[in-house]
Amino acid sequence: MEMFKIGCHLSASNGFAAMGRQAIAIGANTFQFFTRNPRGGTAKPLDEADCAAYNTLAAENNFAPAVAHAPYTVNCCSQKEETRKFAIETIADDLRRLEYVPGNYYNFHPGSHVGQGEQVGMEQIAFALNSTLTKEQKTIVLLETMAGKGTEVGASFEQIRQIIDMVEMSDKLGVCLDTCHVFDGGYDIVSKLDDVLERFDKVIGLDRLKAVHMNDSMFGFESHKDRHAKIGEGHLTLDGIVRIINHPALRELPFVLETPNDIDGYAAEIKLLKSLRK
After folding, report:
1. What whole-number distance in Å separates Cα of residue 80 and Cα of residue 76?
2. Sign (positive/negative) of CA torsion 67, 71, 75, 81?
């Protein structure tokens, strides 16, 4: 049986190596973290020694790629020019810093067009990526699937495909499938998982799918609410989650929990998901 790549969201306050050690302590072999305060602000000074220590720890413990998450204030398609500029500057800075821990992922919410229209929003997101991606980078940037709340861009596979097609260095792009978001957004991954993944493959390509945010859904199918629930306590159901983590097209990907938990809760969910792995 191949390695089950499973982890959760951890606090980056004590650095990379500390997150790695905490992941190991709770039975994880990957994790996600915010690159800076999720509501904005500057990043902590980079500690090159800490990055090197994490690289050694990750290699010694056969870690799957970690997922760096951009702050929620990054909105590449805001109607405000200063907000778009902040998004580009933040992404560029994050990608420069992530080169010290190469081979991992950088995940971001595509953004909300705030009334400008979907096409304008997608063009602005592509502009931001064309302004920040470099040939030399070893980080793959992930567009996260969204729930379609308000004017969010990225709730449909077609929108994500259009963004990818407008990006010059699209080989640096992948997708993170958020189970709560896609279910809330109208993709029935509970009773029609095969059909959804077939659609994903046809529109985007399964080779682009690099990671899964494993979350249950508080409000359910087509709610467009984006409210995560603990594993087995939402509308995805435990049976539905079992099918997701064991599906041939998904099972080798890193699964990252973003459920409403503390560290003990994450440890319990990781143990549960491992027990349900076939």
Report:
1. 10
2. negative
CB atoms within 10 A of CB 235: 17
Which residues pair with residue 257 across a beta bridge?
A: 8, 214
Report how far apart the first and last C-alpha atoms of the chain are (Å, whole number): 9
pTM of the model as a whole: 0.97
| Residue pLDDT tens, the chain, 278 long | 579 999 999 999 999 999 999 999 999 999 999 999 888 778 999 999 999 999 999 999 999 999 999 999 999 999 999 999 999 999 999 999 999 999 999 999 999 999 999 999 999 999 999 999 999 999 999 999 999 999 999 999 999 999 999 999 999 999 999 999 999 999 999 999 999 999 999 999 999 999 999 999 999 999 999 999 999 999 999 999 999 999 999 999 999 999 999 999 999 999 999 999 99
Distance CA 23, CA 243 (A): 24
Let me know: does 125 contact 165? Beta carbons within 8 Å. no
